[in-house]
């Protein structure tokens, strides 16, 4: 196990210690404060200082050797998505990401049966099983309003036949919902909306349906994606079940 993985595990431990400290702090009294400092804050501060030392003397020097300029731009950009801990988002971060984003060329290509994407590569033979394994029904309608693709999961919610491929999406819905379909697609096309959410009950199953506008980096409309999911079991979940809790 490399240093970064060891630090990852240690970071999770520190996070749990911090959560516990915040929880215990609510019940601290002047009389119990010394014990809280000794038994909770002391070990926490020691672990945090140890992590800072490892970052400055192991993680950062190794990163400078292994990562190039484009990698650091991506790290800065993804920090926006992950968020910052203990500090507010740097005021200049958003502007800097915008300025540097234009200098990073996103490589998208197809070669030898493999699709190269900005965040990785996947073989065509892997793509269909991947999409069909998702616990949702996916339907893609192109910018020309023609149905281009639908997933074939094991438990589809809405039946689809291959005859719909190439058909105008307006011809794939009953007359009573046609005006809604047209309103969704038109609002996506003119940019006034990006998403729509609907939910309904079918045969005792609670179905959540979402529509998303797909756009390129310049904002050009590429089409509409419909996702339908049976969330009946999800709505019943309580508490938490973490990956670390899974046992043989």
Please describe what this structure looks like.
It is a single chain. The protein is of the alpha+beta class. It folds into two domains: 3-101, no CATH class; 136-235, PAS domain (Beta-Lactamase), CATH 3.30.450.20. It contains six helices and eight strands. The protein has helices at residues 3-25, 33-66, 69-82, 93-101, 124-133, 175-190; strands at 109-111, 114-117, 120-123, 137-142, 147-150, 195-202, 205-215, 221-230.
CATH superfamily of the largest domain: PAS domain
Q: Cα distance, first to last residue?
A: 22 Å
Shape: extended
Low-confidence blocks of residues = none
Q: What's the CATH class label of the largest domain? A: Alpha Beta
Residues in β-strands, percent: 15-25%
Count of helical stretches: 6
Order of strands, main sheet, comes to 5-4-8-7-6
Question: How would a crystallographer describe the biggest sheet?
Answer: 5 strands, antiparallel
Please state the structural category.
alpha+beta
Secondary-structure element pattern, one letter each: HHHHEEEHEEHEEE
Question: In brief, what are we looking at here?
Answer:
It is built from 6 helices and 8 strands; from the N terminus they run ααααβββαββαβββ. By secondary structure, the chain is α+β, with helices and mostly antiparallel strands.
């Amino acid at each position: 196990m490399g240093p970064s993985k060891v630090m990852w595990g240690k970071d999770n431990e520190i996070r749990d210690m911090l959560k516990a400290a915040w929880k215990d702090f609510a019940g601290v009294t002047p009389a119990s404060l010394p014990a809280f400092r000794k038994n909770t804050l002391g070990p926490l501060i020691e672990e945090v200082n140890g992590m800072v030392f490892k970052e400055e003397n192991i993680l950062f020097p190794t990163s400078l050797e292994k990562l190039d300029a484009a990698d650091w731009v991506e790290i800065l950009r993804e920090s926006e998505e992950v968020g910052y801990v203990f500090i507010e988002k740097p005021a200049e971060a958003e502007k800097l990401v915008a300025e540097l984003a234009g200098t990073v060329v996103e490589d998208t290509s197809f070669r030898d049966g493999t699709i190269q994407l900005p965040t990785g590569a996947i073989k065509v033979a892997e793509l269909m099983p991947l999409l069909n394994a998702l616990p949702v029904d996916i339907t893609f309608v192109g910018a020309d309003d023609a149905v281009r693709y639908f997933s074939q999961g094991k438990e589809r919610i809405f039946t689809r036949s291959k005859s719909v491929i190439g058909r105008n999406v307006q011809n794939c819905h009953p007359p009573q919902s046609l005006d809604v379909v047209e309103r969704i697609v038109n609002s996506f096309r003119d940019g006034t909306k990006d998403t729509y959410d609907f939910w309904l009950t079918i045969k005792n199953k609670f179905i959540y349906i979402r529509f998303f506008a797909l756009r390129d980096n310049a904002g050009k409309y590429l089409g509409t994606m419909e996702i339908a999911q049976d969330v009946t079991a999800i709505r019943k979940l309580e508490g938490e079940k973490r990956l670390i809790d899974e046992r043989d």
